[in-house]
Amino acid sequence: MFKYWIFSPSRKNWVTKNKNSNKEICIFCEIAKGNPDIPSKVVWKNNELMVLMNIYPYNTGHLQVVPVKHVESLEELSEKEYLNLWKYVRKSVMLLKEVLKPKGFNIGINIGENAGASIRHLHIHIVPRFERDFGFMEVIAHTKVIPSDIDELHEQLKKKAKKFFD
Ligand SMILES: [Zn+2]
């Protein structure tokens, strides 16, 4: 299943250099800070965790659960932070079930560049699957979500998020 995450040309866009210092910046840390120059679709955020819509989704409703603190692997989180991260994965599944009624989910983490992590900041992917998805190519085909659909879904998810994440 994890092979599934490795190839996605659009993910190159995530590697961004700071214009002034030419230093690589972390997209998720910037989103956590609320940097308006970084495009993002935040569904929920508190001091510890963020739930984001992937703006280059593998499928409609693709979410990412991201710790606010910059860590690159699971063991860098405290026990409590680790448990909360997975609680938010479960809450995200519940949210997506309510809003999109998918037939299944792929949930996965890439740790390290060799595993296909193009953003080093730890994040968990939650990809809802629908009746007509059969595999990798079909999921890729579904990435042509038109922007207004993404915006509309973002609004729907934000509206319902309170019920699950509060
Ligand atoms: Zn970061």
Written account of the structure:
This protein has 4 helices and 7 strands, in the order E-E-H-E-E-E-H-E-E-H-H. The protein is an alpha+beta fold. The chain has one domain: HIT family, subunit A (2-Layer Sandwich). It has a 5-stranded antiparallel beta sheet, with helices on both faces. It has a two-stranded antiparallel sheet with strand order 1-2. Helix 2 crosses helix 4. It is globular and about 40 Å long.
Rg (C-alpha, Å): 15 Å
The number of domains is: 1
Largest sheet: 5 strands, antiparallel
Helix content: 25-40%
Secondary-structure arrangement, i.e. CATH architecture: 2-Layer Sandwich
The succession of helices and strands, N to C, reads: EEHEEEHEEHH
Structural class category: alpha+beta
Ions, cofactors and other ligands present here are: zinc ion
Within CATH, the superfamily carries the name: HIT-like
Question: In DSSP terms, counting alpha (H) and pi (I) runs of 4 or more, how many helices?
Answer: 4
CATH top level assignment: Alpha Beta
Question: What share of the residues does DSSP label as strand, in percent?
Answer: 15-25%
User: Which parts are unreliable, with pLDDT below 50 for 5 consecutive residues or more?
Assistant: 1-15
Compute the number of strand runs. 7
Global outline: globular
Average pLDDT number: 83
First CA to last CA: what distance? 31 Å
Spatial strand order of the main sheet: 3-4-5-7-6
CATH fold node name: HIT family, subunit A
